[in-house]
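Field log, afternoon session.

UNIT: design team B
ACTIVITY: writing a sequence onto a fixed backbone
BACKBONE:
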């Protein structure tokens, strides 16, 4: 990641108006680069997110032998190395801040007979990797990880790999995807059972690349079976806009009086769209225009108007479909009428930062009233009154977490004294144009 940016204040905003387009979906962008790198032939990717996390994936796939090039029209072309024909990387794979790059690539390389070392920044180096090491070890891979199962770690791919059936102990699309990607270069059928459905971009896109994959049910739980050792065929991918990036503008437009904003081309895969449902339950006016399909994913333009929000108890069953959107939902809760209660958020503690404590500290510093529990926050909203903002000389600790930085920037738009952030550099991992788009929308 870029070095720390200087402290920056986000202050009360004019209404957000007009139309804007958020960048490509991060989860889909990672997968498009990885699968195209495994395919035989040339794939073209349109709408790829050019954020640091995805560029870390591109750099790694190049080290593994794929030819990846950005064309003048903004599309990316990938000439795949072919499944089973990846090259052993000559240097460590630097995953930067990106958990998705790390866990998915660990899965992929776990069944290639090679050695690879994974490194990352301070945030990524604190995140748990045992959740992927466990199933990948069952498939025959070996790992030497740092204390507590963290990066830097060394992986030695299985030779030969063995197929497994793995029931996910945590609701994690990254763990699911790691096992499925390991299954690609494994003879026979590798199966994942997910008691709680998570984002299904891997399943959708693998099918697009011609992989034989079955989705069914076992004892009432979702089961995905991937047939190993089949070639991936090159494929053109169009990446829809990222709903997780759109969420910052949705909440900003709901909160800033007078706002009337259209966010174009937002991916609305049901495994990702929980935030929209919850904000509507709180009274948010979010209308879907021109619902259509882009790259095998449902997409719409979202028309968002300023609304008076009411606090709710968020159903923990919806957590997997909005797991990355809680930081910005907390901001919505801080401005709502009444109390918003969230629970079942244990996984937030192992994201780029501990998002429960980091947001609790950040919002308290900005004047919000809340209590922290082990698995969530209880937030007493202002009923639409501006937050106070950060006190003179104090700034929010963003802790190398892009979503904390953007969420608290949104909080700044509805604060009396502004919200000072200690570092905006992490925003570039997922949404390099965030500040520019925000400025343009409020111009
Ligand atoms: C992602 C899965 C989620 C999410 C992350 C992206 C993915 O992580 O938080 O931002 O692309 O598969 P978990 O698998 O840890 O829930």
């Amino acid at each position: 990641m870029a070095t720390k940016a200087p402290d920056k204040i986000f202050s009360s905003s004019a209404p957000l108006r007009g139309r804007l387009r958020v960048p490509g979906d991060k989860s889909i962008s990672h997968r498009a680069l990885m699968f195209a790198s495994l395919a035989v032939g040339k794939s073209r990717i349109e709408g790829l997110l050019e954020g640091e996390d995805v560029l870390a994936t591109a750099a790694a796939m190049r080290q593994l032998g794929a030819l990846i090039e950005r064309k003048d029209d903004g599309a990316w072309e990938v000439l795949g190395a072919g499944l089973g024909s990846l090259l052993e990387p000559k240097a460590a794979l630097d995953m930067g801040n990106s958990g998705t790059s790390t866990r998915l690539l660990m899965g992929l390389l776990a069944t290639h007979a090679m050695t690879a070392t994974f490194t990352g920044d301070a945030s990524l180096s604190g995140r748990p990797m045992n959740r992927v090491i466990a199933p990948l070890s069952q498939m025959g891979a070996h790992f030497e990880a740092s204390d507590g199962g963290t990066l830097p770690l060394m992986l030695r791919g299985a030779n030969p790999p063995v197929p497994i059936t793995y029931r996910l102990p945590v609701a994690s699309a990254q763990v699911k995807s790691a096992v499925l990607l390991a299954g690609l270069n494994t003879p026979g059928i590798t199966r994942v059972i997910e008691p709680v459905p998570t984002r299904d971009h891997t399943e959708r896109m693998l099918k697009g690349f011609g992989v034989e994959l079955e989705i069914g049910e076992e004892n009432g739980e979702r089961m995905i079976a991937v047939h190993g050792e089949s070639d991936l065929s090159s494929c053109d991918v169009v990446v829809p806009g990222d709903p997780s990036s759109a969420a910052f503008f949705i909440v900003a437009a709901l909160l800033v009086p007078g706002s009337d904003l259209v966010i174009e081309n937002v991916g609305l895969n049901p495994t990702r769209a929980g935030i929209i449902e919850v904000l509507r339950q709180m009274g948010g006016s979010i209308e879907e225009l021109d619902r259509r399909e882009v790259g095998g994913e449902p997409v719409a333009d979202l028309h968002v108007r300023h609304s008076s929000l009411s606090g709710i108890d968020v159903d923990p069953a919806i957590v997997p479909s909005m797991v990355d959107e809680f930081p910005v939902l907390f901001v919505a809760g801080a401005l709502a009428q009444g109390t918003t209660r969230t629970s079942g958020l244990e996984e937030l503690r192992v994201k780029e930062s501990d998002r429960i404590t980091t947001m609790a500290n950040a919002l308290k510093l900005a004047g919000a009233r809340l209590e922290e529990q082990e698995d969530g926050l209880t937030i007493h909203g202002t009923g639409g009154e501006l937050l106070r903002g950060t006190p003179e000389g104090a700034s929010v600790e963003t802790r190398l977490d892009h979503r904390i930085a953007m969420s608290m920037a949104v909080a700044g738009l509805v604060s009396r004294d502004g919200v000072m952030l200690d570092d905006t550099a992490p925003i570039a991992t997922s949404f390099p144009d965030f500040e520019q788009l925000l400025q343009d929308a409020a111009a």
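LOG NOTE: The pocket of shikimate-3-phosphate is lined by residues 27, 100, 172-174, 177, 199, 323-324, 347 (CB under 6 Å).
NEXT ACTIVITY: expression trials, pending approval
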